[in-house]
Amino acid sequence: MSARTTRTRLFAAATVALAALSLTACEGDGLNTGSPKPASSSASADESPGPSDDAKDDTGSAGSSGSAGKDDASGSGKGSGSGEGSGSGKNTGGDKDSNSGSGSDSDSDLPGKCSASDVRITAKNAPRPINHLLLTATNTGSQTCALPQYPAARFGEAQSVPPVAESSKPQSLTTLASGESGYAGVRLSSGDGSAEGGREVSTLTIPFEDGSIARAELPSGGVHVDDDLTVTYWQTSAANALEY
Predict the structure, then answer these.
(1) Collapsing DSSP states into helix, strand and coil, what is residue 9?
(2) Are strands 145-146 and 112-113 parallel, antiparallel or unpaired?
(3) pTM of the prediction?
(4) Which helix (H) or strand (E) holds 36?
(5) Does position 84 have pLDDT exceeding 80, yes or no?
């Protein structure tokens, strides 16, 4: 065997050895560092853990609770809104109707003020006490009316009306239905001649609050008056009018 042949064989043997070595190293690396084989999609789906029974129960319970809460909230809202709106409307309307009706009834019950066109006034000497005149006001109209507090009597050409006896003031105004009469007393003079300003008068006028004026005919020959002249408030009876 020649030296060339020997070298050739050695080179071939070395090449084989290196190739085997290289193969061994590659297989080792593949086993130690290679990426794991990816699982298929079907395997992942089958192997992925699903929700536990407890989780399912919790989810179902929560869903039911949420639905019930929604229903409750919706029902409560409707009930509250309807109740409040309905109640408030009834109360307000009731109060308004009640007040309006009461005011209307109260106003309609009040009599109007008497006028000279509805009242006839007469003046007569009273039998007693002496020097007294009895005024009678009769409602000749068809409606009930209220007389003034007292007759603002003007005798003759007097520039002022006589004072009123405060002790004769009634608790309320004298009202007259159709055909009814009210009365007032007049103290014409002191009677003993002690008062000043004595004079004879033949006319008597009595104004009303609406501006109308009633004229009363005095007894024949007129009457004697002086500074002691006084009138009473209108009364419902002649006896009360002549007490003062």
Answers:
(1) helix
(2) parallel
(3) 0.56
(4) none
(5) no
